[in-house]
Amino acid sequence: MKKRTKILVVDDEDIVRESLRDWLDGVGYKVDIAESGDKALKIIKHKKIKIMIADLIMPGINGIELMKKAREIVPTISTVIITAHGTIQTAITAIREGAYDYVEKPFCPEKVELLIKNLVEHQDLVEENISLRRKIEDKFHFEGIVAKSPKMLKIIELVKTVAPTNATILIIGKTGTGKEVIARAIHHQSPRRNRPFIATSCAALPESLLESELFGHERGSFTGAVERKKGKFEAGDKGTLFLDEIGEINANTQIHLLRVLEEKKIIRVGGNEEINVDVRVIAATNRNLKVSINQGRFREDLYYRLNVVTIDLPPLKDRMEDILPLAEHFLKKYAEENNKRIKSFSDDVVKFMLNYLWPGNVRELENMIERGVILSKNTAITLDELPQDIIHPTPVEGKTVEAVTRNHVINVLEETKGNITKAANILGIRRMTLYNKLKKYNYTVNKLDA
To answer: Bigger pLDDT: 363 or 388?
Structure first.
């Protein structure tokens, strides 16, 4: 038994609260008493009460209301309800509201002592689990990277090795695998950590604006250029520039980017002046650039300039050991952001997460956990809070992973009535990626939102 656990007994009957205080104090607990809910709340505000034993029916604040108010002050407090004969159903309701248990009057002190002993052991177990979770987080977190699998641990070691250098890095991997997270980790471990980290998507802008975004432009260089503007390279001087979806840039931009990497100089669009820049470039792509080179869509010399060191991120389905640590990480993040007391997942959800193929990778997992946190009304996320079209494991006998993925993408799209933005958010991928998938699948929808 844990000595000196702080207990608060709340009852409007003198004999009940005083007899409980004397008994529990005699077996090693530190006990405070209160004759009303209002006085109990004052005590809870000033003392570290771990367990409250409260009468169900009291003048003013009843036991259930007191329990709820007490949890607003101390979320970890546990409550045992005292109930008289004839109010058992109400006591059961209290348990549904979050009470640990109830005892019925008249009660024997030994029964209460055993109940409190079990409750203290339960609290100790919860605290041990929280402590273990923190240790796991410390062990498996590195600069925003949550990893336990051998593949990802090797990547972390590679990040630690290349970060202190000025080497250009190429990160390859499917959409949603966490390429920007890796890029940020490299920056934060580098000597440039106190300088800017600037991320830009090469697929997010029209070709006509991409060069202006990267290299800047002079006033009057094109319609709408009403003043001089610095580009990402100038803004990121002495820092790191992350170029996502590098495989989407056009041939002309490829030539200019190659020149910047070779000479460390830029020329703004519409200008003639060479400007020195000291920027470390980390590029990323979900394309096979060697195939793009063979198709004449990507310059081979640029590829080798970018590909000084390659980091190949595996899809989530190939790093199963990371699923639960990642899920716990996102659960904690979004529970705190949404001020919710959600602590865990139901067993069915854990089973689902370990069997699902995750076509949207880590981004889809994060999106699903955020949705679950927002919708959940309990302390654990259940299958009811997950997108209903994906709660069954996707591996299907006789179907390829690509076929299963296609079916999932199309099901989500049809569920959103062709809304590309909503579908992309559910899948945890970018709109451009979803457009590309639909083109690959030769699938059209009636509604494609802008």
So the answer is: 363
CA 98/CA 296 separation, integer angstroms: 64
Number of domains in the chain: 3
Distance CA 195, CA 234 (A): 12
Rounded to a whole number, what is the distance in angstroms from the first to the last CA of the chain? 63
Reported residue count of the chain is 450
Average pLDDT of the residues in 353-361 = 89
Q: Could you give the 3-state DSSP secondary structure of residue 82?
A: strand
Preceding peptide of 106 cis, ω within 30°? yes
Rounded to two decimals, the pTM is 0.59
- 3-state class of 386 per DSSP? coil
145-146 vs 141-142, strand pairing mode:
antiparallel
CATH number at residue 385: 1.10.8.60
Mean pLDDT for the stretch of residues 195-224:
85
Q: Three-state DSSP class for 157?
A: helix
**Is 449 among the domain residues?**
no
Closest CA to 254 of 283, 275, 274: 283
**Do 343 and 376 meet the contact criterion of CB atoms below 8 Å apart?**
no
Higher pLDDT, 101 or 398: 101
Tokens of 265: 């100089």
Q: Quote the CA–CA distance of 432 and 237 in Å, as a whole number.
A: 29
Report yes or no: 80 and 101 within 8 Å, Cβ to Cβ: yes
- Average pLDDT over the chain, rounded to an integer: 85
- Above pLDDT 90, what percent of the chain? 43
Is the CA virtual torsion 28, 30, 33, 37 positive or negative?
A: negative
Tell whether 447 is covered by a domain.
Answer: no
Helix pair 179-188, 150-162: axis angle to 10 deg: 40
Both 113 and 15 in one domain: the answer is yes
The confidence band for 2, taking pLDDT boundaries of 50, 70 and 90, is very low
Q: Would the pLDDT of 141 be above 70?
A: no
Burial 216-234 (b: 16+ CB within 10 A, else e): bbbeebeeebeeebebbbb
Least confident of 107-116, 225-234, 303-312, 408-417: 408-417
Domain housing 251: 145-314
